[in-house]
Structures are given as structure tokens and as C-alpha cells.
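Priority: medium. Attachment 1 of 2:
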């Protein structure tokens, strides 16, 4: 007779860990922008998304003493070296099986990141290829959505789900919610009847008789506040200054883009969000790939970024169009008519400024609002940004990386002029 022997379940650490917590703990590694922070836990990994670096990041996480609870930490320490390596392998396999990462084999002599997709006009920033044959992984859309949700929750708290087109405007229209004034009914309006006004019109015409005949011209409806959808282009400055001066400005900007994408997906599903990177030139990039972008030895071609943003917004059929520009540098580059890049490292070159302001003027004529979030306090630069905002009736925020997210998201939701102290 066959017997089944039962033993005490001791638990599998790789299966017990919550992957949500693991991904959040690895966010600094996954969103690395090229800033060599000496205080970063993953500073030695250089942000390269190789499977070996992922294994090392997980190892550092387990050994840090801050991630695991006391029981799990003891369980990890009691493992043999082979057991720990197997646990890390199993955890990485779980991350891939549950679509948090996607493994891929690096092909010799090729760039893993970069290359423009000429079919849809979207591109990426070229990054040096890792050593040939290194196994790589890619952060998936699921991971980006999760990290965006975590960032959004940290910045603004819980968000509910709303219907399409929730931005308040100064217009009124017929609708179900009667928060506006009344008007005479016109063919095609929603029959949100103002009963008192309608009966008053009928009695004024016929007097107090029964039955009371209500004609077409007696009808009065209540108007509701007109709410519209919005097309937004986030312009991210990825020039070298975004990681200079001992401060990482680009990683917070990437987190803001992810949080804004999650906010639009859940709170304003009728809106659209596009991402434009500007440096020596500019290109559109899918928001889902922003985790892979790093800054480089580039200048700041603000005018080219505005050009790309305008092309995107011209394709949109939304009533409201805006550009959210996040930068810390002076415009220091310009694309010439023959395609060459004119550069001036000192910034605020008269030629560059004049051409950039002309592009701002084109945005104004197209009805595009530019809201600028400046991560610098240079007086001359502040004057330039204020001029841009005045031309497009937008807003200028002079903020810090720590406060950037709250400013951008609150501005997007409020949709009105205000002063932030």
C-alpha cells in the first residue's frame, strides 16, 4: 500500500516575498538616470539593466537588514551560499513569470536602447551597449504602471476613478448635473428640464387654465458646467545639467511622468499624455520606456522640443492642449535649417533665445498653454521662463526635485491659475 509522508512546511522565501514590495524597494535601481549618488544602495551597479546586476541588487536588498522582517531575515541568514543563490534565481524567475520584467539576450555589436522608429516618429536615447552576450532585462508596462501608482499615491494619496473629460472650463453646456444657469431649449440639447421656468412661461402665455398646454417655445433647460478632455505633452530635459551640481534632478522628473501617466489612466481616461525628450535635439518616446532613459553629455535644445510637442498636439482632437516642460538649464542649442546643431555652453545666447521665443509664440497662436517647472534659481533664467509663461498665459514654478511631483500633479488637476508659496 502506497503511503504519503508529510513533513513540517518550513516556507520558501522566494515564494513568500511580495513582489510589489520588491519592485518598490528596487525602484532606485530600475529608474537610474546616470547620477552617481555616493549614498545610493545600488551606486556600484551603474544602472545597467543586466540580469547579473538585478541579481546583485536583490542580494544587496536581502542583506541590507531593512527589507526583510526579523523572521525572514533569520531564514535568509540560515541558508547556505548555494541556497541563497537559488533563492535569488527563483525570485528573479517569479518577477519574469508575473511580467514585472522581461528577459532578453543582448545581441553582439548592437545597441539595446536607442534607434528611432521611423514608422511612428518615436525614438529613444542611444545608450552604450553592455559587454557582448550579457543577459539583459526590460522593465515592463506592468512595472511602470505599478511604480507610477506608487509615486502617485505618495504624492497625492488615493485616487478614485472618473469618467472621460473631467477638466472644468469656463463654458457651460446642457447635461445631467444642473450646476449652471438656465436657457431656452434648442434642438439637440439634453432634456434637463427647468420645470419651474417652463411652467411659468406656459402660464404667462395662456394664463391659469387647466389643462395647461406647454408649447415648444416654453421649454427651458438647466445647463451644467462644460467639462473637456485635455492633450498633454510632458517635455523632459535630459541634458547633462540634470545630474550635475551634486543633485539628481532627472529621476524625480521621470517619476513625475510615470505618476502623471497613471493619474490620466485612472482619473482622466479621456485625456492623452505624450512624452518628449529634449537635449541636443528632441524626440517623442513612449511613457512606458521612460525608465530606460539616462541623461547624457548633451546641451538643451528647448526650441526643438517645442517643435516636436506641437506636431504631437496638432494630431490631437482635444479641446484643451498643454505642454508641461520640466527643465533646469538655459536654452543652449538650436537646430539650424541645414540640420546642424548650433551650441553655446554659456546659455541664453541671443540667437537661441530669439528662435526659442518665436517657437513659444507659435504655441500661443495654436492655443497651446506652456506650464514650466524650473529646477533652478538663476535670475536670468527665471526672467526667460517668466517671459515664456507670460506669452502663453501659462504658469512658471520654480521648485526643487523634492517638491516637483506635487506641483506638477496638483497643477494638472486644478487647471486654474494660482500662486504656490
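Attachment 2 of 2:
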Amino acid at each position: 500500500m502506497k503511503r504519503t509522508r508529510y513533513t513540517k512546511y518550513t516556507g520558501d522565501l522566494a515564494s513568500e516575498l511580495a513582489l510589489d514590495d520588491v519592485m518598490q524597494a528596487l525602484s532606485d535601481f530600475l529608474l537610474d538616470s546616470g547620477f552617481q549618488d555616493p549614498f545610493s544602495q545600488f551606486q556600484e551597479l551603474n544602472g545597467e539593466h543586466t540580469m547579473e546586476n538585478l541579481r546583485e541588487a536583490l542580494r544587496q536588498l536581502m542583506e541590507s537588514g531593512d527589507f526583510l522582517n526579523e523572521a525572514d531575515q533569520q531564514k535568509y541568514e540560515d541558508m547556505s551560499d548555494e541556497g541563497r543563490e537559488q533563492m535569488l534565481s527563483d525570485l528573479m524567475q517569479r518577477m519574469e513569470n508575473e511580467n514585472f520584467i522581461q528577459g532578453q539576450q543582448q545581441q553582439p555589436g548592437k545597441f539595446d536602447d536607442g534607434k528611432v522608429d521611423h514608422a511612428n516618429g518615436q525614438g529613444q536615447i542611444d545608450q552604450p551597449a553592455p559587454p557582448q552576450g550579457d543577459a539583459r532585462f526590460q522593465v515592463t508596462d506592468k512595472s511602470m504602471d505599478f511604480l507610477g501608482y506608487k509615486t502617485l499615491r505618495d504624492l497625492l494619496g488615493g485616487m478614485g476613478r472618473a469618467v472621460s473629460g473631467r477638466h472644468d472650463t469656463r463654458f457651460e453646456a446642457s447635461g445631467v448635473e444642473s450646476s449652471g444657469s438656465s436657457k431656452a431649449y434648442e434642438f439637440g440639447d439634453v432634456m434637463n428640464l427647468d420645470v419651474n421656468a417652463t411652467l411659468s412661461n406656459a402660464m404667462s402665455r395662456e394664463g391659469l387654465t387647466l389643462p395647461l398646454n406647454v408649447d415648444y417655445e416654453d421649454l427651458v433647460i438647466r445647463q451644467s458646467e462644460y467639462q473637456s478632455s485635455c492633450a498633454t505633452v510632458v517635455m523632459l530635459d535630459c541634458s547633462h545639467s540634470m545630474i550635475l551640481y551634486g543633485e539628481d534632478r532627472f529621476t524625480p522628473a521621470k517619476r513625475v511622468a510615470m505618476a502623471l501617466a497613471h493619474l490620466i489612466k485612472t482619473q482622466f481616461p479621456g485625456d492623452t499624455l505624450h512624452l518628449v525628450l529634449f537635449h541636443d535635439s528632441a524626440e517623442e518616446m513612449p511613457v512606458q520606456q521612460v525608465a530606460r532613459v539616462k541623461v547624457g553629455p548633451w546641451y538643451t535644445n528647448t526650441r526643438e522640443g517645442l517643435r516636436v510637442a506641437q506636431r504631437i498636439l496638432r494630431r490631437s482632437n482635444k479641446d484643451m492642449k498643454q505642454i508641461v516642460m520640466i527643465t533646469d538649464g538655459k536654452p543652449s542649442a538650436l537646430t539650424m535649417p541645414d540640420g546642424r546643431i548650433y551650441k553655446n555652453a554659456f546659455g541664453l545666447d541671443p540667437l537661441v533665445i530669439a528662435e526659442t521665443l518665436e517657437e513659444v509664440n507659435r504655441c500661443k497662436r495654436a492655443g497651446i498653454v506652456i506650464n514650466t517647472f524650473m529646477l533652478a534659481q538663476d535670475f536670468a533664467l527665471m526672467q526667460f521662463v517668466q517671459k515664456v509663461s507670460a506669452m502663453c498665459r501659462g504658469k512658471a514654478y520654480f521648485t526643487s526635485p523634492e517638491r516637483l511631483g506635487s506641483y506638477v500633479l496638483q497643477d494638472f488637476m486644478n487647471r486654474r491659475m494660482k500662486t504656490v508659496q
